[in-house]
From TrEMBL:
SUPFAM superfamilies: beta-lactamase/transpeptidase-like
Residue stretches making up the Beta-lactamase-related domain: 186-527
Protein name: CubicO group peptidase (Beta-lactamase class C family)
Entries under PANTHER family matching the protein: BETA-LACTAMASE-RELATED DOMAIN-CONTAINING PROTEIN, D-ALANYL-D-ALANINE-CARBOXYPEPTIDASE/ENDOPEPTIDASE AMPH
């Protein structure tokens, strides 16, 4: 069956909205009373409540409501929406986040509302104007639901379109040559964006039709110092490493060392999951597909033992249990992606330690043949000479250096995110992808089949997008864009290419506030290729305002230094059997701090709406929040991600 016909069948239209909830068997198109269109996810229930459409998650208590209102401004629109859908809602609004103009929407705002940690949920309103009318999307979602159903929730948000609006498409259009004038416009965009976002350094590269047409740096390696970034400057590329790891696996498939359908336990007998049935199903192709049902599980390597090795990946996996059915939905998870590299390394070099084997197979199958001469997995080598230091905003919204110790734990799961690279090296990789496995010298590096298998759909991430093996594919603009982004403390990076047009782009930044450029830079290149609507600049401006507002709003909730009465209730030392130890220490300036072993951060405190107390380790890059309490007569600190909870208990 042709792919377009198959997709059309997947997205059917519900003929009429019922007053009682109707469970949806497949992703289903619909419209609000005023004609705003949307797609509701499979497995959710849908019904009408007055003028609102309510979508209920399969898990009780989580829902999204869509409604159109007449209002004087965004705040008024949100208030009228809550009054219509949940008039008893009395939560305090904590932030108002602007979003850029997109898909016909103007004056977009996201309002967040106060919750307490033990509620384990988020409450928000997204408000957007089209003409004189406002559309509002209300959401009251448990963290476990938003973590597990990330792609389904994004489907609702991404496909919300004004009545009669036709999304911009580049289908059937021929890309312009990126000539001097268009590259000058790109240059100006990056330069202005870097200043607007307060990013110390940005390096950008573009290829078209097999040639590098743009490769340069903007700004500096280190804030306040003169050394410039350039196309050779190294950045920690984080999850972009996954694309390189799955490329390595493709090389091993070509060599006959393994196949995409080889059982992982056959290749690496030490591979285990807490759920044995799921472990038995995992093939090589599933390690980087985000489709096994395994959730994010990052705290165990971020706060893991300081002396850990890549074997920690297997320990973590042995404790992991799926939270959705195998192949049912997209769930991004770093430990199982890290296992992909361990499988490849062990298959090629079974006598070496797991980390050393991975390093060797990447050097021999990827870095050397692609002439990625500066790319490395060695932090010590990378952080000598021409590399970009990481930055983020501190608790007061000022640019501050990120302690590299926050990033070094990635070494233990490095196939998922531990590579350092630069624009010149990554452009060689992108050129090879666009050339379908051929090198500039005319030699074939990898078979077209092994290369293409990585882009094939493994699990859907949206109406027009899917995840392959370590690669995202998004066709919402009518022409596929293949990409993968990377985020670690103080680094935001992306590489993307348009296979139908022979154009690829790399963007590397050394600040968390460069996050928007991961999407805005490829978008700006697309605008220049196709004379597209100017959305990229709006996204950058909105992101700059968002950062300023978000830090100001968060700062208002914190007592810094931490309230003395709160500090007095803390135990000197806590321990969790999986995560290890936290000590409460005193810094040279007299402030109290949490000592996580590899790094320390001063303490702030916050009184939550329910009267509980959160203690925050305030550090640029990451400020973990821990709920202070007692259990069974012992003082505790609780840290959570969306689907897991870890309790530290006081120890002598």
């Amino acid at each position: 069956m042709p792919r377009r016909l198959l997709i059309a069948l997947l997205f059917t239209t519900l003929p009429a909205l019922a007053a009682e909830p109707v469970r949806l068997e497949r992703d289903t198109s619909g419209a609000t009373a005023a004609g705003t269109t949307f797609v509701a996810p499979a497995g959710w229930s849908q019904h009408r409540r007055g003028d609102a459409v309510v979508l209920k998650a399969p898990e009780a208590g989580s829902w999204i409501a869509l409604i159109d209102v007449d209002a004087k401004d965004a705040s008024d629109a949100a208030a009228k929406a809550w009054s219509a859908v949940d008039p008893a809602m009395q939560r305090e609004r904590t932030t108002a986040t602007p979003l850029g103009d997109k898909d016909g929407w103007r004056e977009q705002r996201v309002f967040a509302y106060a919750t307490s940690p033990d509620e384990r949920r988020s409450v928000s309103a997204r408000v957007m104007r089209y003409g004189e009318r406002w559309s509002v999307r209300l959401a009251d979602l448990a963290h476990a639901v938003s973590g597990k159903r990330e792609a389904q929730i994004a489907l609702v948000f991404d496909e919300l379109l004004p009545k009669g609006h036709v999304r911009e498409t580049f289908a059937g259009r021929r890309a312009h040559a990126l000539d001097a004038a268009r590259l000058e416009a790109l240059d100006a965009f990056v330069a202005q964006a870097r200043t607007t976002l307060d990013v110390p350094g940005v390096s950008v590269g573009v290829v078209q039709n097999g040639k590098v047409v743009f490769a340069r740096g903007f700004g500096v390696r280190e804030h306040g110092k003169p050394q410039k970034v350039d196309a050779d400057t190294l950045y920690l590329i984080a999850s972009n490493t996954k694309s390189l790891t799955t490329l390595m696996l493709g090389k091993l498939v070509d060599e006959g060392v393994l196949t995409w359908d080889t059982s992982v336990r056959k290749v690496l007998p030490a591979f285990r999951l807490a759920d044995a049935e799921t472990a038995d199903k995992v093939l090589v192709r599933h390690l980087l597909c985000a489709c096994t049902g395994l959730p994010r599980h990052d705290l165990e390597w971020i706060l893991g033992p300081a002396d850990a090795t890549p074997a920690l990946t297997l320990e973590i996996l042995g404790r992991m249990t799926p939270t959705s059915k195998f192949g049912e939905m997209y769930q991004y998870s770093n430990p199982i992606a890290a296992a992909a590299g361990l499988v490849g390394g062990h298959s090629a070099y079974p006598s070496l330690e797991l980390g050393a084997a991975y390093d060797r197979v990447m050097a021999t199958r990827v870095f050397k043949p692609l002439r990625m001469t500066r790319t490395t997995l060695d932090f010590d080598r990378a952080t000598r000479g021409n590399y970009a230091r990481p930055y983020a905003f501190d608790v007061d919204g000022n640019l501050a250096p990120v302690a590299m110790a926050q990033n070094t734990p990635i070494r233990n799961v490095r196939p998922a995110g531990g590579a350092w690279s630069n624009v010149n090296d990554l452009l060689r990789y992108v050129q090879m992808e666009l050339a379908q496995g051929m090198l500039p010298n005319g030699r074939r590096y990898i078979s077209a089949g092994a290369l293409a298998a990585r882009q094939a759909e493994q699990v859907r991430t949206g109406k027009h997008s899917w995840y392959g093996m370590g690669l995202d594919v998004d066709a919402r603009w009518g022409t596929p864009m293949v990409y993968h982004g990377g985020r670690l403390r103080g680094y935001r990076t992306n590489m993307a290419w348009f296979p139908e047009h022979g154009v690829g782009v790399v963007v590397l930044t050394n600040a968390d506030n460069g996050n928007v450029l991961m999407d805005a830079l490829p978008r700006r290149v697309a605008e220049l290729m196709f004379d597209g609507e100017p959305e990229a600049q709006s996204a950058v401006e909105a992101a700059a305002e968002t950062a300023k507002n978000a830090f100001a709003a968060r700062r208002r909730t914190l007592t810094l230094p931490a309230d003395a009465a709160v500090v007095a209730t803390l135990a000197p030392r806590y321990r969790n059997e999986v995560l290890g130890t936290i000590a409460v220490t005193t810094l040279d300036d007299g402030r109290h701090a949490f000592d996580f072993g590899a790094w320390r951060a001063p303490l702030a405190s916050r009184r939550n709406p329910d009267g509980s107390t959160t203690v925050v380790a305030v550090a640029a890059g990451w400020s973990p929040e821990l709920l202070a309490d007692t259990r069974d007569g012992k003082r505790t600190l609780t840290i959570r991600d969306q689907q897991h909870e870890y309790v530290y208990v006081e120890v002598d």
